[in-house]
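FAQ: What does the model actually see?

It sees only this:
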Amino acid sequence: MNAPAVFTTEEIRVLEERGAKAIAGAAPLMERAGAATARAAAALVPDTGAPILVVAGPGNNGGDAWVAAARLRESFHRVVVHDAAGAAPRAPEARAAVARFLELGGRTVPEWPADLRPGLVIDGLFGIGLARDVEGPHAALVGRINACGAPVLSIDIPSGIASDTGRVRGVAVRATLTITFIARKCGLYTADALDHTGAIEVDELGLPAAFFEGSRGTLLTPEAVRDWLAPRARHSHKGTYGTLAIVGGARGMTGAALLAGRAASLCGAGKTFVHCLADDAPAVDTGFPELMLRPLEESPGADVWVAGPGAGFDAGKKSLSPFARKILPELLARPGPLVLDADALNAIAASAPLKQALAESRPGTTVLTPHPAEAARLLGRSTQAVQDDRLAAARDLARWFRAEVVLKGAGSICASPDGTWSINTTGNPGLASGGTGDVLAGIVGALLAQGLAPRAALRLGVCLHGAAADSCVARGVGPIGLTASEVAWEARAVLNRWVATSAAGNRTR
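And it is asked to produce this:
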């Protein structure tokens, strides 16, 4: 299965213009969007006697709402329109819908109707054109929608959510279902939007599939990525699946490096070496003796390196640690794939020479796995600025450092130097606990060691990491109290299910 395409607002506007020209002489896009909204509403409230409150705002979103109201009234639903625009719609099809709605005996009100207990609210207040925070009476209206106790159907995007960033602009509607038109908007799948969209239904409004080809953005779903790792040949050995080396684990943080190593072994690396930096590092991981623990100076070399989990970094110190001063430059000079995580990223952010080496002279492929604060340090921005536009931050990192990047968080964003990007759809709040990032670094390293291309290894690893957390929660483990170790063990089970499913599907084709 191809990964579903996802678009920025600018790209959606282009699709809208092309779509309007392609269907000239047929039902306009607004008519199609309103009809699709009416169908979705009727499915949510099949009882035609249950009152439906339609909130119609200014702009095309409000026009879609008026068309939906007229269609629902035509099918004998009891509909009340709260006209929040205060002016006649601009679009001719919306004006025609208003006239049709009134002809059919529809009721319009200028304020929230105190005498109505709606069975459904249709949110047509603001769409993807929202350019400022929702304030004043409109903010109060959003509050009424959220507090009314009825299911909420949002048109195109929940009002108050920024369509490119997923951030709340002041306040935002919390939808039960969002029906989005033409194509998926990136802001529906990351940041605050994940707590506001409810289920998402996509209606292409009858536009041909060719319209959506060549998208630079995709969604990472288990169905899209699960066949990226081929089943193992029976005639293979540990050398077939690569050697991975992990560098990290300073004093008091050896667990981070061990977590990464365990995750790498569980997800298929042929051999895993862990080089802990602490003087008191253990000689063996008694809970996972398959790992080979050695001082870095005794490293036999590896196909893939992971650097940073628990490596230690003190932003208050004026001088760099030995890890940053000596080990990182050597790793950056190696030609093979290198995953940089956690304190490796912090050290690079604090050192102009390391930044330059990574951006300009690194001979091998690099994978960066920052959380928002680490990304902010690398970019020289505030963490809030990164979170305010997660897609832009991820794409900047990928371009600046010529690296495959994942900006971790709700709706993790993967970006590549060529400008392509993906938003992950798996994962849950159980991943908001210490050590889960170390597990992700180990998973990505293991997939690289098994020969996946860096772009595929990162995206598959991110989707697998989230899916493992989802699998844990599905069987009653978490999200509260879910541990990184549990995610690592579950990742093995999920990965094997995916590979088995892919193999079975190939046999039946």
